[in-house]
Amino acid sequence: MKIILLGAPGSGKGTQAAHIAEKCSVPHISTGDIFRENIKNKTPLGIKVKEIIDNGNFCPDDLTCELVKNRLSENDCENGYLLDGFPRNLYQAKALDEFSSPDMVIELKVDLDRIERRITGRRNCSKCGASFHTDFIGERKTCEKCGGELSIRKDDTPETVRTRLKVYAEQTEPLVEYYYKQNKLFVVDGNGDIESVKKDIFKALDI
Known about the structure:
This protein has 207 residues and is α/β, with parallel strands linked by helices. The chain is built from ten helices and eight strands. A five-stranded parallel β-sheet has the order 2-3-1-4-8. α2 crosses α3 and α6 crosses α8. The termini are close together.
């Protein structure tokens, strides 16, 4: 089964993607992982990507699509895949349809105020890298595992989160209508706890 998982930053995509990939026995593929792998292995495309990123620019759509196309041609994708973070816009969606049209698209729908709370409440240990949330640790300033200082990532501030959500709405939400017209879209309420959301996703996928 070829699946796309859509959702705004902080919607829980990463967590649910791991569950789906395991249940369906397909690889969980993200563009970030593809970029890092190609850069690490110094492939011709990876060298291009590194140069673009090092110059502070975003990877262009045509290069991103080429990287994804190459990844989906690998043997572990013979029985399907789960795409997370791709496509990000209509250009990429139309390109994907040309080389590997998805079977189903799951959109995790989460209230924006809940997303902002989820992201801005994250705290990361500067020493061991452990991650926590203020819902559980309150105003604690030190890591309970190693005693390191807890901090907020630069892209987890309220201002940055609102910008990220705005970009998502402008670029990615049009994909919802695109896949709805193809009768491939299933919307899942992502406001619940991890287990309830997982059950709803599995129900939509009929697995």
